[in-house]
Design a protein that fits this description.
The protein has 249 residues and is an alpha/beta fold. The chain has ten helices and eight strands.
Length: 249
């Protein structure tokens, strides 16, 4: 088993694969200004096990396409949708977010929570823009500095993990440069990080380690997650996910 497979296995039982909440998804949906009573074409990119996909499925009508690179996550999303009697409401597509199998101007709304970092904020904004109809909306969450300066320890961690992390001003500028007008933004709360993401994963560590017979790789995967959680607890006043809602110009 590769360490990527181990990470997927750790996350597979999770409702959320990144910080967020149903309330955050609904708040962002409201900020889109779209009339959700009318049928919309929506893409949810990097959907994972689909916590936000399910919220979108329940609160919109029309077509909803969920995209992820990993079939295991899509299979989990599909079984979750069946349990909620939402099967048929979502079309799952296995694809890479930097090589999407869609027509240009196919969507009214592109959604992406905790996932654009895989190809980078600027690259994602630029590449995905062609798939939005004229005047279409993007709603995307992206790791953002909350202050203009911060302790070296956390600065160094993010410089390695995701050098594109930036301040709110930088992210707003990126949206503008990529051809969008920002309609709203907000930051995810501590509860969206800890209660909905970190704690549920930590609760799975021991079963995960047992399942993998405490292999070196499994221990390393858990340690890496623990370090990230610890850093968040220590430096949560310095960064969060910003949720950005913007319109294609
Ligand atoms: N939106 C979900 C998942 C966020 S985690 C949530 O908030 O719970 C990031 C997701 O991006 C994972 O599901 C991962 O499988 C997916 N991903 C990573 N690289 C990708 C790529 N190149 N193309 C599509 N999806 C990708």
């Amino acid at each position: 088993m590769t360490s990527l497979e181990a990470v997927i296995d750790l996350h597979l039982g999770q409702e959320r694969l990144g910080p967020g909440s149903g309330e955050d998804t609904l708040r962002a949906l409201q900020l889109t200004g779209l009339d959700t009573a009318k049928p919309l074409c929506i893409a949810d990119i990097g959907c994972g096990t689909g916590a936000q996909t399910t919220v979108l499925a329940k609160n919109t009508t029309g077509s909803l396409t969920a995209i992820d690179l990993f079939p295991d996550f899509l299979a989990r999303l599909e079984s979750g949708l069946s349990e909620k009697n939402l099967q048929g409401r979502v079309q799952c597509v296995q694809a890479s977010m930097d090589n999407l199998p869609f027509e240009k101007e196919a969507f009214d709304l592109i959604w992406s929570e905790g996932a654009i970092y895989n190809i980078g904020f600027r690259a994602g904004l630029e590449y995905w823009r062609q798939f939005l109809k004229s005047g279409g909306i993007i709603a995307v969450s992206e790791i953002t500095w909350l202050t203009n300066s911060r302790p070296l320890e956390i600065e160094k961690f993010w410089a390695e993990a995701y050098p594109e992390i930036g301040t709110l001003d930088q992210k707003l500028q990126d949206l503008k440069s990529a051809g969008y007008e920002v309609k709203g933004h907000f930051f995810l709360s501590e509860s969206s990080w800890i209660d909905n993401y970190y704690q549920p994963i930590a609760a799975n560590f021991s079963a995960f380690l047992d399942r993998h017979k405490h292999s070196e790789m499994a221990i390393a995967v858990v340690r890496e997650h623990e370090e990230e959680f610890e850093l968040y607890r220590k430096f949560k006043n310095y960064y969060s996910y910003g949720f950005y809602i913007a319109q294609k110009l």
